[in-house]
Amino acid sequence: MISLVTGGCGFIGSHIVDRLLTEGHEVRVIDNFTTGRPQNLDHQKDNQHLHIFRKDIRSREEIAPLFEGADYVFHLAALADIVPSIQKPWEYYSSNVLGTYHVAECAREAGVKKVVYAASSSCYGIPDEFPTKETAQIRPQYPYALTKRLGEETLLHWGQVYGLPVITLRLFNVYGTRSRTSGTYGAVFGVFLAQKLAGKPFTVVGTGEQTRDFTYVTDVADAFYTAAMSDIVNETFNVGSGGTYSVNRLCQLLGGEITHIPKRPGEPDCTFADTGKIEAALGWKAKISLEEGVSRILEQIDYWREAPVWTPDTIDTATKDWFKYLGK
Q: How large a percentage of the chain has pLDDT more than 90?
């Protein structure tokens, strides 16, 4: 089998690459290294079944030849994080929407067996009920969430109109080894781990009683593989841990002091996936507890030494546009 992974040098993508190689696939990776890191696959550098190409999904001509002969496409290439999506909406639209259109067209022309897309639970915005089902109202609160939703709509529409076999997976709060260390203020684990290494307090938003459906990355990679190998097409599934955990609980597991920063607009007090649909249809269920996942991360914490160390003052500066545009 030949599998193509866009964003394959990124956090989740590199774990999917590992899984595919373990399963005996020939793997092609497309990554422009905007957020992905070649080092994430250094442990596979001698694997003759892995082929990494520095390409950009915004250039259809550039990526189209790599789809030829591919059986499966795992589409993870995207720009993430809230604040830069507010500041630079075209970059997000061109990558997450136009780039996904190119992936859809290349996959259709190549006649692939399945495209599995990394959708985002941020499409639900602030839901009315928890756990949240796939049928919940779509309410994106910021451009990142919107562009990921539009990418999802594009692929599902290609399935409906052109018969492209597609599954979209709405991911909830993925964490684990190799999570991003970029200079952008973003995911809580990267922020907290860099602060822990620097001996600084964890910057907890609001009271810290807000809960998140922290889902370990190897469970997510397993969901992608299971979805690809299934006979199901043109469906959307939540991918979550089966629980929801407070940020304060996370701080206890990581071990460190806390300082509080203001609650932010457009963020839910809870994220919690209803995973009944994926459990029934695909037999998939998360296996890694939060305690075990955090333990695995702490064993490899040196990975985050390159990450920026955020303080309340630098976070305040970085999130001014967040409050400016979303705090109305």
A: 96
> In this structure, what DSSP letter does residue 115 have?
E
- Answer for the pair 174, 13: CB distance below 8 angstroms, yes or no: no
The beta strands (E) that lie in 255-306 are given as 258-261
Which tokens is 321 given? 């546009």
Grade residue 184 by pLDDT with cuts at 50, 70 and 90.
confident
Please identify which residue in the block is written with the tokens 């999904």.
57
Average pLDDT over residues 222-227: 98
pLDDT at 328 over 80: no
β-bridge pairing 202-205 and 26-31: unpaired
- Alpha carbon distance 165, 158 (integer Å): 8
Catalytic-role residue among 144, 175, 245, 303: 144
144 is catalytic: yes
The rounded distance, in Å, linking the Cα atoms of 300 and 263 is 30
Q: Give CB contacts under 8 A, 24+ apart, made by 150-153.
A: 150/93, 150/96, 150/97, 150/100, 151/78, 151/96, 151/97, 151/99, 151/100, 151/117, 151/119, 152/117, 152/119, 152/123, 152/236
Give the DSSP per-residue string, 48-89.
TTEEEEE--TT-HHHHHHHHTT-SEEEE------SHHHHH-H
**The two structure tokens encoding residue 5:** 């992974």
DSSP SS3 for 195: helix
Q: How far apart are the first and last CA of the chain?
A: 50
Residue 2 has pLDDT above 90, yes or no: yes
What pLDDT, on a 0 to 100 scale, did the predictor assign at position 185? 85
Cα 109 to chain centroid, rounded: 26
Q: Of all helices (H) and strands (E), which one includes residue 106?
A: helix 99-110
If pLDDT is split at 50, 70 and 90, which confidence band does 176 have?
very high
Dist. CA 167–CA 319, nearest whole Å: 34
Residue 187: pLDDT band (50, 70, 90) is confident
Chain centre distance of CA 121: 10
Q: Report the length, in residues, of the chain.
A: 328
8 Å CB contact between 179 and 303: no
Helix 217-229 to helix 11-22 angle, to the nearest 10 degrees? 60
Query: Is residue 143 pLDDT above 80, yes or no?
Result: yes
